[in-house]
Amino acid sequence: MRRLLDAATSIKVKLGALVAISVVVVALLATLGSAAGVPVWLTLPVAVLLTLGVTQLLAAGMVAPLRSMTEVAQRMARGDYSGRVRTTSSDEVGRLAAVFNQMAGDLAVVEAERRDLIATVSHELRTPLAAMIAVLENLADGVVPADAEHLDAAVAQAERLRQLVTDLLELSRIEAGVTRLRRAEVPVRALVADCVEEVRVAGRTGEFEVDIPEDLVATADEARLRQLLVNVLDNAARHAPAGSPVHVASGRTPQGWWLTVADRGPGVDPHDRERVFARFGTDASGGGTGLGLAVARWVAQLHGGTLRFTDPEPDRSGALLRLELPDDHDLPVPHEPPAPLEPQASTEENAMTAPTPPSLPPADRYVPLGPPAGTAPVPPPGLDSFFGSFWPERPGLAGLRVVVACALVGVLAGATMTFTNPGLSWVLVLVGAGTAAYLTARHRRNAFTIGCTVLASLLVLPLALLDAEGIAVLGVFTAAGVFLIGVTDARTPAGFVVTGISWPLSSLRGLPWFGRTLRVVGTGGRTPAVVRTVVVSLIALAVFGALFASADALFATWVDALVPTLSFNDFVTRIFVGCLVFAVTLAAAYLALNPSRVEPEPRTVEPLGNRFEWLIPVLLVDAVFVLFLIAQAAAVFGGHDYVEDTTGLTYADYVHQGFGQLTIATLLTLFVVWAAARKVKDEALDRLWMRASLGLLCALTLVVVASALHRMNLYQESYGFTTLRVTVDVFEGWLGVVVLLVMVVGGLGHGRWLPRLALVTGAVAVLALASINPDAWVAGRNIDRYEATGKLDIQYLRTLSADAAPVIADRLPADAAACALSLLPLNQLRDDEPPLAWNLGRSRARDAVEGLDLDATDAQGGDPCSPVIDAYAAGSAR
Predict the structure, then answer these.
(1) Angle at CA 838, nearest 5°, toward 455 and 772?
(2) Is 864 helix (H, G, I), strand (E, B) or coil?
(3) pTM for this model (two decimals)
(4) What is its EC number (predicted)?
(5) Over the Cα atoms of the chain, what is R_g?
């Protein structure tokens, strides 16, 4: 699909196709789920997640060139011009990428020239400067006389510097396109004779042989052509051996004319014939600057011609330089920059070349120094920009193995969890999901992470041990929270909350990573081979298995035993369940692999300037707690009559009325302690007052917690026990433990441990609640109350799960037990339940209900248990 989108020449067409594909995916999934009877709560998240995945895969190819351009531009800002944007797109972004690559290449050439220019100019300027300074120092110190010979030596070095600067300026003007040609008819022989004389005046004493026709006339800029000839003749004269002439020849071609300059020197190696035309590519030891041939070639190019070294004639040695110029007056003026000087291997140089001047290392070996001073950093693209510093993505994250592990968990869920009640299969899926996330977790070797993982594994066990859905769900959510907090290494309550938010957000944050991971399948290596092997093997297995099953009845029975028979609705539902579990597991795995920065930046809290600003409010809260406890003591010592006369409430109603408020008061106490402790000055007296006032508040809170638990116990003794009330008791007790930890751990100065200790003790409280089997425990307490009072709320017992069945069947009369268990879903207690759907609570209930008549309706469709329920509720069944 991405390859098809690459063929589109407009990004608007691609965006339209992307929207259309997303709409089609959502519509198909919604239609498929509706036709298969999949509930909306399952169809909707799967459709959204799958659509996001498809969109990410398609959009990734569209924005990849832009992301690549951003990365390359950032590298260019650090001085590395080697990066390029790779794309097969032909739309506006693809064309922009092509222009960007061209610009990057041009900048790389310019940067290479700049580095070469700095290195070589400094090298070339240093030699004549050093010689001139030495001569002048000798003259100033009187070491040598100030005669014409020594003064001429200083002038010669100064003249060499002037010539070097002149050549540099001229070459810069040529490269910048400032130079314009003034073409005219120029007699070549006369011009060459003038140039030879100019070279001789400059100090070249060699001989020149000029073999040029008198009638040869060229159309060129005479001044520029003179500049070219003087440079090449001077170069040849410098390298020609003493006594050997420099031969200059010229002639006509069909398109223009040519000129050659030959000397009998060492010549130019074929590998160096282009290098010598680069700036400072020739030897400066004979009075040259290393720029003459570079200027000469550019003059030839300005005229639309060429200048190059060629092989000498067979019977001659040395170097042969050939100039070819056209006669066309309308040739364009070239402005292409010269090729950068490439470093050459160390070889024995001939007389016309010099060792490569020192140059800087290539750009890809530079240490990045960051963007230039005063410039704002380039924001990261895409979701990196959206999430910012809260959730940066570390480079080099493992991908394929994580996705494969999560996919296997999804397949296991679709195959075993669907159409089964919570049991062993659910535990296996959740443990598998946690294992897939833990094995790739960044902090998996952290002791806290290991402890949270073990604790989370224990918290999912109620799915296989208890039938009470509420307790199982509480355990699963607690396990998820503890595990995620462990893998993100959160330390504070704020970090715990951010971790919980990060889990669903990771399904969005990890989309680019997921897209890159899937694209690995299409790259080289063994991964594509493995994927192709699996796909081809499954297709072959399905085709040949179906053929042989239809051809042989015995083989078909074996296939039926191995492969379950699935209806269309079953198959679709299993796919939806598998996709949802895969997505949730992958989100947790990404959060573990690349945890968000859950901890807020530490802030310095300014303490209050006056002690009374925090001390008086705390003391007032202490006073309120004291007054409340005095009222509680009055109610206890006054008895039921005093409470009823004073409040108009029965004692049971009185104790039930304030339980929720006391729970809220306990929570607020923890907030007061936290807020006050942050505002205390770090002084001995202030700390003493803090420990006294807040310690008193915590001690009073523990008494309030005990009062709340006592109230709930009295109310349950009067009105019966329920699972919800037991759960609330456990929660209030856990708050009391947290308050006690605040007193002990906080008093010892280890307050940073409190959040994690509170987390661990809360998870242990949930485990303790599950370990007492709440439904069975509540049923036993209600039966105890029946045995004491003769009253039994069978209607409530009918709402309990199968966990209560053994207690009810064992301790109640047969008629009461049958009515209490008559609403149990018998299909959940069948003997042919799959092994992976095993649940201890249902298994024990199955044995307990044997022999009981659990028919919940009579012949007229009514409830035959109604008389029994009424009799036991009135206490008349005894």
Answers:
(1) 50
(2) coil
(3) 0.62
(4) 2.7.13.3
(5) 46
